[in-house]
Structure formats: C-alpha cells, structure tokens
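--- STAGE predict ---
source: upstream dedup step, 1 unique chain passed
mode: sequence only
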Amino acid sequence: MNIYYGFLIVFTGGKWIYSLPGWFRKFAEIRLLTFHTANGMPYGLSIVTFIWILVIIAAVVILKHTLLGRSIYALGGDRKSSFRIGFNLFFYRNILFMHFMGLLSGVAGVVQALLVQTVAPNSIVGKELDVIAAVVLGGATLSGGKGSVFGALLGVALLAVLRNGMSLMAIPAVWFEFLVGIVILISVGFSSYQSKLKANKTSIIDVADQGAFYAENKNTL
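--- STAGE serialize ---
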C-alpha cells in the first residue's frame, strides 16, 4: 500500500482539485425523493445514496446468483480444491482484483468527490484497517470463504455507531483506532484457532483397513 500511495503522489504531484465542473456540483445536489421538515428544510434520498443502493444490490446479485460470485467464495475457502474441480484461478483472480474491485474503487472515488466537492490524492488514505474491521465485524473471515454484503453493512453501521458514541462521550479519537486494531487482532486469532480445530478434526484413513473393508464388502458395494 505504501508503494501504491507513493506512486499516486508522484503521478498526481500531490495536487488537489477544487475547480470541479458546474454540472458535477449540480449532480451531487440531485434528490430522487424530496421531503420537507416543519421548518421547510428539504431532505430526502440523494443521488449519492441511490448509487450506493445500486452497488449493494449489484454486489448481492453477483455474489449469490452468479458463477463468478460462487467462484469468489470457492477461491477464498480453498484455493487448491477450487483448482482441482476446474476453476481457472488466474482468470477469476484477475476478474476479482483488477476488474470488479477496480470498478468499485472507481465508483467510491466518484462518490467521495461528490460528497466533498474536491479531489485529493490522500483523502481516504489510512482507512484500510477500518474497512477490514467492518467486514470482520460483519462475519467475514480474513482467511476467506465466508462473509456477506449484508454482514458488511452491519459492520460498517456498528463502527459508525461506535465512532459517534465515542465522540459524544468525549473519548479521544485515537482510542477508536485502538479499537479497530483490537477487532482485527481478535479476528486473526479466532481464524487461526478455527483453522487449527479444523486440521485436528481431519480424519486419516488407514489404507490397509480400507483395503480390508473393500475386500469384505465387495459383493455388496
């Protein structure tokens, strides 16, 4: 990540973009549904929220109802088994990391620019651990193969509630980063413990006993 961030700063020159087109600013102000408070203040469903709803629906459909989605779970669960049953690991990893995640990163960058009306090369740097903690709290494992979009949403909501609650309680912001680290540490330890239990439960079949079993039951098998 540090290499990528350094390349990003060199490529952009560390320059911020403030002069965004007028249509871009107006696009951020679009509301698909508009309501008014008792004082006449408008509120409602903005175009930014609608974009995220579309992204969530698309992610659920892809992960639950397409071959690509099931392949993603299979690759995360057991890469060797996925290869043995015929999955093209290079193809699916290329689609996942370079295309699917690249598309989502592009959408996130546009939405970030819509929200703050500026483009900064370092605007979301350092939030990677927050993302990891959110999906872990939502039920995903760092070893792969488990997780859901709905769980990730719950994890994001929980972190947002925790951050807001700590702010209201006047707790320093550094403690939130400490909490994120604790969540990731516990997740790594729990995943390792689960892997160890799974390895201990793996049964080893004695080849000699298996041969004797087939010899005794060859007429019924």
